[in-house]
Specification:
The chain is an alpha/beta fold. The protein contains 20 helices and 8 strands. Helix 7 packs across helix 8 and helix 9 packs across helix 10.
Length: about 500
């Protein structure tokens, strides 16, 4: 290749990367948004597909209630007895009633306001008619309308003392109180409860079943990376799955991405190189270094893999742009022109970053220490090993307290999970889509006859509990059917036991 061709090739590579950025953010990139991973959420960013595919309008059958929730379930200080209003929503439309001991399906809210989650999660409503189930959705503390002391989300998380009550243990204790209250209020003490959670909420659902087996009969834990703590899962598991997704989509796309990092560094090292990159990638502010851009691109690729849903398959679309003609005649370039008309896209991206930063703030950062890293040549990404010492220093600097990297496995377990849960646990479904990078930290094989793993080779993050649609592939339809039948067997056995106890 002559020098002229080489320069053209390099310019084309930078142009294509800039197009990919535009695909994900139609306004600009903030250079301060570096080193952020896609959040643990069921909610799809709107730039990855048609909103109608993933969301439904809020049903008129929903009724909103508030429970006076205890601020601190585990201490007996005066402040511990402070209460706040925790929102929960119920749908009675298909419920068979307390007299029939009809089941109660409970969605455990995660790191988002309840309205946004209910618009995405369709599993409860799609299944309620078959089970004659009451649907309950509980908002996670510190989100939406369930924030202590009447503060805003930002105010609550900026206060170090108030932030200390923001933890998974407090959250699942909240859920236990609300569920017990609802059952008593409805005289439905004999109605079996099935909890459902997605991503971080899926972690909560599985842990809830382990910690509160007297409150819930079973749990559906969708895309729950409960094994991505300490050294249980290899650090590079997350990025290895992303790499595999892109390589399967296109070998040339994979190679281009792998080579792009050094090319970005090369341009950045030239006179005014950072200015060239800032202009090309339409950053809000001047890039301070090439790592800011590389971190952002890593976030984009990881997000495409996490939400690589049918029928659009964002990884394939991204690779279509990379492999396509540089003049913008490929399918991705045409799709970009549509996205440019959707002015809310940038707002959605900004919201995602704010939510990620919030999830990493305070209490969650202290306990949710997920050691995601990359080695020298084990993925298509530049090296970036997880360093606990650095993490400890940064966490202490930002939030005033050091993290507790061993607390999750101490409180919930995780090591030798197959041996421990084989005898100890029951009635948990772990769903994982193997295209989702968080599946690397999930339970991927059956532990017992009732602690079951359902994996789909082409599945993405929390795909199983989204609204069912006419375009769902057969494998997804069958996967949801398998989950429903398992839950059906749990409830049937419960009724047998309940009937025997009444004799």
């Amino acid at each position: 290749m002559n020098r002229s061709s080489l320069i053209q090739s390099q310019q084309w590579l930078i142009s294509i990367l800039a197009i990919i950025v535009l695909f994900f953010d139609t306004t600009c990139i903030s250079a301060a948004q570096a080193k952020i991973l896609p959040r643990l959420s069921v909610k799809r960013p709107p730039f990855l597909g048609e909103p109608a595919k993933f969301s439904e309008p809020v049903s008129e059958d929903l009724q909103t209630f508030y429970y006076n929730q205890t601020l601190d379930h585990f201490n007996y200080m005066l402040e511990s007895y402070t209460t706040f209003e925790q929102r929960y929503v119920m749908n009675f439309k298909y419920w068979g009633g307390a007299s029939a001991s009809a089941p109660i399906f409970v969605y455990l809210g995660a790191e988002a306001d309840l309205d946004s989650e209910m618009s995405v999660v369709g599993f409860l409503k799609d299944s309620a008619h078959r089970f004659k189930a009451l649907q309950v959705y509980i908002e996670h503390r510190y989100y939406g309308k369930s924030i202590p002391f009447g503060l805003t989300e930002e105010e609550a998380l900026e206060n170090a003392n108030i932030r200390g009550y923001f933890s998974s243990a407090q959250a699942i204790a909240d859920y236990a109180e609300v569920i017990i209250y609802i059952k008593k209020k409805l005289f439905a003490e004999n109605s079996p409860v099935i909890v459902v959670g997605a991503s971080y909420g899926g972690m909560l659902a599985s842990w809830f079943r382990l910690k509160y087996p007297h409150v819930t009969l079973g749990a559906l834990a969708s895309s729950a990376p409960i094994l991505y703590f300490e050294d249980i899962t290899p650090q590079n598991g997350y990025y290895s799955v992303v790499t595999k997704d892109f390589r399967e989509a296109s070998e040339s796309c994979y190679k281009t991405i792998r080579e792009s990092w050094s090319e970005i560094d090369r341009v950045a090292a030239e006179p005014n190189g950072l200015s060239v990159l800032s202009k090309k990638f339409k950053t809000c502010n001047q890039l301070n270094n090439s790592d800011e851009l590389k971190d952002y691109l890593s976030f984009i690729y990881a997000g495409a893999a996490q939400y690589n849903d049918p029928p659009l398959y964002p990884v394939t679309m991204v690779c279509g742009g990379i492999d396509g003609a540089p003049k913008g005649s490929d399918i991705l370039s045409q799709y970009i022109q549509v996205l440019l008309l959707m002015k809310e896209i940038c707002l959605a991206i900004t919201h995602i970053f704010l939510m990620i930063q919030k999830l990493l703030g305070g209490g969650m950062a202290v306990e949710m220490v997920i050691p995601i890293g990359r080695g020298d040549n084990d993925t298509m990404f530049p090296p970036g090993p997880f360093n606990l010492t650095t993490f400890n220093r940064d966490c202490t600097s930002l939030y005033g307290v050091p993290p507790r990297p061993h607390w999750v496995t101490t409180y919930y377990g995780g090591h030798d999970i197959e041996l421990i849960l084989r005898r100890f646990a029951s009635n948990i479904i772990f769903f994982n889509g193997l295209r989702d990078h968080y599946s690397s930290g999930g339970v991927l094989k059956n532990i017992s006859q009732t602690v079951l793993a359902i994996n789909t080779v082409n599945g993405s993050h929390c795909l199983d509990i989204l609204w069912a649609t006419s375009t769902d592939p057969d494998w997804l339809v069958m996967q949801r059917k398998a989950e429903v039948e398992i839950i059906e067997s749990w409830i049937a056995q419960y009724y047998v036991d309940l009937h025997a106890m009444k004799k």
